[in-house]
Design a protein that fits this description.
The complex is a heterodimer. Chain A is α/β, with parallel strands linked by helices. Helix content of chain A is 16%, strand content 30%. Chain B is 34% helix and 17% strand. In chain B, strands 3-2-5-6-7-8-1-9 form an 8-stranded mixed β-sheet, with helices on both faces. In chain B, strands 4-11-10 form a 3-stranded antiparallel β-sheet, with no helix packed on it. Classes of the chains: A alpha/beta, B alpha/beta. At the A-B interface, β4 of A face β10 and α9 of B. Bound molecules: flavin-adenine dinucleotide (FAD), iron/sulfur cluster (2 copies) and FE2/S2 (inorganic) cluster (FES). The site of one iron/sulfur cluster has 13 residues of chain B, from α10.
Chain lengths: 276, 343
């Protein structure tokens, strides 16, 4: 839970390490002065003094509270500055904010987790959590998709998951781009959902990725027979405050920062243009 | 109820000035603006109608330093609390929206809460209506009934005084020598003024055939795909004036000062009419077109807030009508929306 008296104040944080994941994605290992313990699915606001702030979902193990990792794609002003950060630089963190994945619902159920592109970041933290409680789950299925092997986030780690015998996993890329080492599927992530082998009527699905991927994947899940109230989505909107005040992230009668970012599909499907 | 004479009221303001930064409406041309009190101010306009600038600026400031150097707590400001005089009912009604955002929510905004607790509001009845006033259409009477510390009804040579809070009671008690019992004719004078102003607003509503709020339910949903939005937005210049002057608009941006050496964060007013408001990195924008943003502004006021807080986020103050350089008139938009539903 958020503890500061002033919800706009960032906590002074030191950059412990910077890991280059792909040409445009880096993971930052951060140690806030006062520990920030998040639950999987929640997000934090990350700021660089003199530059600005942006929201990210930690990609690390939620049970670790003195440090956390965020995996960030370089796309604009703040993220470009973040990518210039080095070990021991000082940054700011606020949070955690928003809703989390409702993992307690998954007890004795079959769970399908689908990640796409940079959506692997929140999904990685969710998978760490699910691995911890794997004994409580009836079945765990993972499907991951990315544009090409070069941009495949956490590639080595995901490869290693393919060796887990209590995980049904398939990975795909839109195009292999001549990567000869790539031994997994080629095609959109929606094309590798056919063999999940789940009791779809009672199973849960979690989807995180770019809006277009979430839109089509949700459509496929519904066609497969998943219930609307058993599908959970991470919605990314423009955010500033993170606490339901600045007005930027509204979706219908909700604020994505406070009532989301994790939404049950049936809660938001009635609003117009949710994928835009 | 009390009575205070014109002279005693001047003394009262001087006294308030010790503990507060006092602001008074002063007329410039045809408009009224809150101005810092000095003894030289000869003619504050306590009555008449709303100022051009919204009351919210004293509570949710246009530019507030909200964090510095990673220190917890709030960056200290050296200013005194504000005492705002001559506040009108349409501005006080804005508190319903602002409070629901900044206080009655999962998180508390300590800056807003501070101002709400410490500022003193000396409101006043409207003694006339201008062309753009339509508060009654929103069910708001042109005289304050709540959310003030002290309310004044301007009479011939003084004011009828009503206290509306603990702070109001206390300050009147401490300076009780300035206040007297009102007589019956003074009380009657108040009723006459209030009736007179109500008539003036009702006349506006009739003249412009402004729909009343009992017809507002569903006007956004049912007009979501209507071409009213594109039509109305066609002259908009995206200046954001409508948001800035509105007593209910609450959107802001956290802005970090461009000094890498120190961390300093401002909370500044933002406008949902501006293109980048909802744009996300990579360029996707749920409200790409200007008319979508105009629709969004109305959706917030007439669909979102009624659903989440049971209030219409418009108080009928008419400021956006006066401020819009593109002459987009909320009364007209409401008329079209309602007409489309009831035709
Ligand atoms: C809940 C959530 C979780 C996310 N998780 C991840 C993640 O794990 N990994 C990831 O890579 N991306 C994630 N994103 C996306 C990420 O937030 C954006 O990529 C990021 O905001 C882009 O910022 P930018 O400044 O580089 O881009 P730009 O396109 O330059 O700007 C985007 C926004 O940054 C803000 N901004 C710019 N300047 C300032 C300033 N001076 N002060 C304050 N704000 C400023 C503005 O609000 C602007 O609209 C997430 C988004 C959300 C909503
Ligand atoms: S929308 Fe216009 S008329 Fe309504 S409260 Fe805001 S400024 Fe006043
Ligand atoms: S004041 Fe008028 S021109 Fe300016 S943004 Fe609002 S509607 Fe558009
Ligand atoms: S980010 Fe400010 S309301 Fe959601």
């Amino acid at each position: 839970m958020y503890t500061s008296k002033n919800p706009y104040r960032p906590v002074k944080t030191i950059v412990l390490d910077v890991i280059t994941e792909t040409p445009t994605i880096k993971t930052f290992v951060l140690q806030p002065e006062t520990p920030i313990s998040f639950e999987t699915g929640q997000f934090i606001e990350f700021s660089v003094p003199g530059c600005g702030e942006a929201p990210f979902t930690p990609s690390s193990r939620p049970s670790v509270s003195d440090t956390l990792e965020v995996t960030i794609m370089r796309v604009g002003k703040v993220t470009t500055r973040i990518h210039e950060l080095k070990k021991n630089d000082i940054v700011g963190l606020r949070g955690p904010f928003g809703s989390r994945y409702p993992v307690e619902l998954f007890k004795d159920k079959e769970v399908l987790v689908i990640g796409g592109g940079c959506g692997f970041a929140p999904v990685r933290s969710l998978m760490y959590k699910l691995f911890e409680i794997r004994g409580d789950l009836k079945k765990l299925v993972f499907r991951g998709g990315c544009r090409n092997p070069k941009e495949f986030l956490y590639r080595d780690e995901l490869e290693s998951w393919t060796n887990k015998n209590d995980l049904n996993i398939r990975l795909t890329v839109d195009k292999s781009d001549g990567d000869t080492v790539w031994k997994h599927d080629v095609g959109l992530v929606t094309t590798i959902l056919g063999d999940v082998g789940m009791d779809v009527k009672n199973g849960f699905a979690v989807v995180c990725g770019p809006p277009i991927m979430m839109k089509f994947t949700t459509g496929t899940l519904l066609d497969m027979g998943f219930r609307e109230d058993n599908i959970f989505l991470s919605m990314e909107k423009n955010m500033s405050c993170g606490i339901g005040k600045c007005g930027h992230c509204r979706i219908g009668t909700y604020y994505a920062c406070k009532d989301g970012p994790v939404f049950r599909y049936d809660a938001i499907k009635k609003f117009p243009n949710i994928w835009d | 109820m009390y009575y205070i004479s014109e002279n005693n009221f001047s003394r009262f303001l001087q006294i308030c000035d010790d503990d507060y930064d006092v602001f008074l409406p002063v007329k410039k041309g045809n408009n009224r603006f809150f101005t810092r009190y000095t003894q030289q101010i000869q003619q504050p306009v306590v009555g008449e109608v709303r100022t051009s600038d919204p009351l919210k600026a004293f509570f949710f400031r246009a530019r507030e330093k909200v964090a510095r150097d990673f220190e917890d707590g709030m960056p200290a400001e050296s200013r005194k609390p504000a005492c705002i005089v001559g506040v009108k009912a349409c501005d006080l009604a804005g508190f319903k929206v602002q409070d629901s955002v900044f206080i009655n929510n999962d998180y508390l905004d300590p800056f807003y809460k501070n101002e709400r607790e410490n500022n003193l509001i000396i409101s006043s009845d409207c003694t006339c209506a201008i062309d753009t006033c339509f508060c009654l259409a929103l069910g708001i009477k042109p005289y304050p009934i709540e959310n003030f510390d002290i309310n004044l009804t301007p009479l011939e040579n003084g004011y009828l005084v009503e206290v509306g809070s603990e702070a109001g009671i206390k300050i009147v008690e401490i300076h009780s020598q300035l206040f007297t019992e009102p007589n019956e004719s003074q009380k009657n004078e108040r009723d006459t003024i209030r009736e007179h102003t109500k008539d003036a607003v009702e006349k506006n509503i009739r003249n412009y055939t402004i729909p009343l709020k009992d017809k507002f339910e569903g006007i956004i949903e049912k007009n979501y795909e209507s071409d009213i939005w594109q039509d109305e937005a066609s002259t908009c210049v995206e200046c954001g004036a409508c948001n800035a002057i509105c007593p209910t608009c609450h959107c802001f941006l956290l802005y970090d000062q461009k000094d890498e050496k120190k961390m300093e964060r401002l909370r500044i007013w933002d406008s949902c009419m501006i293109k980048d408001f909802a744009r996300v990195a990579g360029g996707a924008n749920p409200r790409e077109k200007l008319w979508m943003r105009l629709r969004n502004r109305f959706e917030k006021k007439f669909d979102f807030f009624p659903k989440i807080a049971d209030i219409y986020a418009c108080t009928g103050c008419g400021r956006c009508v006066s401020a819009c350089p593109a002459k987009i008139d909320i009364r007209n938009v409401l008329k079209r929306l309602v007409h489309n539903v009831y035709k």
